[in-house]
Amino acid sequence: MWSPEREAEAPAGGDPAGLLPPEWEEDEERMSFLFSAFKRSREVNSTDWDSKMGFWAPLVLSHSRRQGVVRLRLRDLQEAFQRKGSVPLGLATVLQDLLRRGELQRESDFMASVDSSWISWGVGVFLLKPLKWTLSNMLGDNKVPAEEVLVAVELLKEKAEEVYRLYQNSPLSSHPVVALAELSTLCAGSCPDERTFYLVLLQLQKEKRVTVLEQNGEKIVKFARGPHAKVSPVNDVDVGVYQLMQSEQLLSRKVESLSQEAERCKEEARRACRAGKKQLALRSLKAKQRTEKRIEALHAKLDTVQGILDRIYASQTDQMVFNAYQAGVGALKLSMKDVTVEKAESLVDQIQELCDTQDEVSQTLAGGVTNGLDFDSEELEKELDILLQDTTKEPLDLPDNPPETFYTNSVPNPRISDAELEAELEKLSLSEGGLVPSSKSPKRQLEPTL
After folding, report:
1. What are the tens digits of pLDDT across the range 421-450?
2. Which residues form a coiled coil (predicted)?
């Protein structure tokens, strides 16, 4: 829980962990409004009421979660949320609303809802309400006293789950029965005080995951075997196994103590020999031998106890395997309830028949549609042969080769004008025998020789 010493270490008006809302330091007007008291009724101004409640209710629970506590008091909250010398005036109303919604519960009411007869300490403080609290409830006054202890219901469930996992992952889980003192030592890191530890056990007991029994003045706790299983009452077998476990621990402690005593006798004999005290050395050696004989006898007893425990653990494992087999057989029978060989064969025949039908339908559809025309395949083959024979007699209609142009001098003939052609013709005529060129001779265009 919070304490004045812890709060004194923190800076005044601030949050040492930096987990308070930003407006805590930045918005003075907003914080003045939040630190003011609630109206007498929500109907007066529901907006202001809901704004304050929406700020303080989650903050109270988150603060408790960060502190790792499940028990809280109004006085502690006022000290924790003190700001610049002021305390929130509406925290009592916030706690009343959380109580109404079931997110908080009075510690005494929680204790009364569970069988806590095994708790024998602090009856007047832990179990019974102070007289003024009882009278205030009878008179209809729902105000929360500053010293009344409240329990955060959801945080207590989370703490109970944490303790259960801690036990399951520890060597103590080898047997479902464990001493309350050993369990308390195991949970010292999770439960900050004894009351929190007892509240966690009561929550686990409420969830039917543990049961507590007092045996010969010593309290023992029995856990459920699985996370979703319900714990069974402590029986004679559980008590017998617990006693064997206690005997094993006692024998182990005695063996360790006698081993140290034997080593001490050996050292005394060695020192007596060095000092020349032979008789003293002999007495020390005799004491060492007697101690070693006792150790051997204790070892034999310890081996016997450990052998019995090993057999018990093995039988428990066998029982778990047997139960698993039995559950498996029951599930298999249930799943095969309406399944027989005849039904399976009939089902296979039906599947085969359907597959054959599907194949026939597929073949029928693959034949195509003839539109009412029935063609003779032999006549179609003959007509195709005639067409092939006719095509072999006809010349092939191949494309013509591209024309090739040949020149007398193997040189491409450039385009020549008419005047140049006439001049060339006159030259040829003169060279062939005195032909006289005539201006009236018709003009013709020479074509290149192919």
Report:
1. 677 667 765 655 554 444 444 444 444 443
2. 248-275
